[in-house]
Amino acid sequence: MPDYRIVRNGVLLGALTRTGSDMPWWEGDFDPAPGFESIRPLFDRERELLEADADMDAWGRAWDELAVGMVMEPLNGRGPITEFLLHIDGRQASWRY
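^ thats the sequence. predicted structure below, dont judge the formating
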């Protein structure tokens, strides 16, 4: 059962299901929705810059572009989360808020 829906500018990107943690990060499975394909290149670029660990300013700009209009919607009835970090690598995800 998913824990969160990820929505960007009203488009469902997918769902996150927690499977563990490496505090302060949560880890889990990402189930992409059809709307994810249009944004996948931005997630790929963000992850590449983060893994390169060369220019954190470039990573920050990439994340800022990606995060515009993005919210995590908890499926337990809590309100939307608007300030968070999310990394997606295939069907795996890590996030913190």
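The radius of gyration is 13 Å.
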